[in-house]
Amino acid sequence: VRTGYGKNAVRVLFIRRHGRHHYIVELKANVEITLNSRKDYLSGDNSDIIPTDTIKNTVHALAKIKGVKTIEQFSLDICHHFLTSFSHVLKAKVYIEEAPWRRLEKV
């Protein structure tokens, strides 16, 4: 029985500044959490469930607090947070895509 759950398509938009040039970066994160127990499935006890809105808000908060140097590092930051903040989390998987934005140049 696969017991993971999470939040898909968490969008994060931020500005990366390089001198006079500013670049918009758009990310889309999928976060999947697997818990140590299966009591939510076996007995209907949801006391260990981390709400999906909490997962979404955590992604946004980590982007604000830690910043996004690379999508790989940001993925590790998200996984590390859930694995260290919640003792009942067995596994955390994060998949992030970066959508390209192009600068509009003066004609």
Automatic annotation (TrEMBL):
Its EC number(s): 1.7.3.3
Entry GO terms, CC: peroxisome
Pathway: Purine metabolism; urate degradation; (S)-allantoin from urate: step 1/3
Catalytic class of the enzyme: oxidoreductase
Gene Ontology molecular function: any one: urate oxidase activity
UniProt keyword terms in alphabetical order: Oxidoreductase, Peroxisome, Purine metabolism
Catalytic activity reported: urate + O2 + H2O = 5-hydroxyisourate + H2O2
InterPro entries in the cross-refs: Uricase
Gene Ontology biological-process entries: purine nucleobase catabolic process; urate catabolic process
Name the UniProt record assigns to this protein: Uricase
Natural source organism: Nothobranchius furzeri
